[in-house]
Amino acid sequence: MVDWTDDRITALSDQDLKNLLTNAERKSVADIVAKCQTELEKRNAAKPRKASKPRSELKEFEHDMSAQLAEIGKEVAGKYDLSEETAKAKSEGVKGFKAHRLLDSKGYAKLGGMQRDGSVAIERYISYRRGDSTAYLGVFLPKDAPAEDHEFHVIAPKAFLEDGKPVADIRPSATEKQKQPADSGLAFKDLPSAAAAFDRALAKLTA
């Protein structure tokens, strides 16, 4: 019978070491099992880990926008009652009502349907629904466009948006299915102006 010293085990190839471990486990040779496991752990620890790929400039921009939108979401949540419980209570009798989570599960802006299906490069947004009305604030970048072409869209019922335009005017590429369930929208080049319009819409929606 081979005397499996530490030196002998260290000299084995990865595959031979695994084979020895399998045999030792089958024969219930505890000391050899322990030595093999220790050596495998050492080798795994020594292997260089694959470095995660750096984000592209566009992905970095999307991540940054998601974080900025989330901060606005947290600010308005501190001003208005945007809880799902209140939304449900105030929407009793509205057929098919489903409360909107303001942010995604990681605390960032949500991923929009048009980005999800690949029809635009970026659509990240925050939104609140009460009754049959929704207020939406998002960043929007058409497909194959440079990041500097992005816009911020506020979409809400016409009664809540001063000078609101038809959603088709600010999103000409959107299909009927992709349009937000509201009858008007505004497009901005800067986030503070969009956030202010979103805030005003929320104030009316939650009044």
UniProtKB/TrEMBL annotation:
Region of interest (Disordered), ranges: 41-60, 166-185
Residue ranges, compositional bias (Basic and acidic residues): 166-180
Top-rank lineage group of the source organism: Bacteria
Name of this chain's protein: Uncharacterized protein
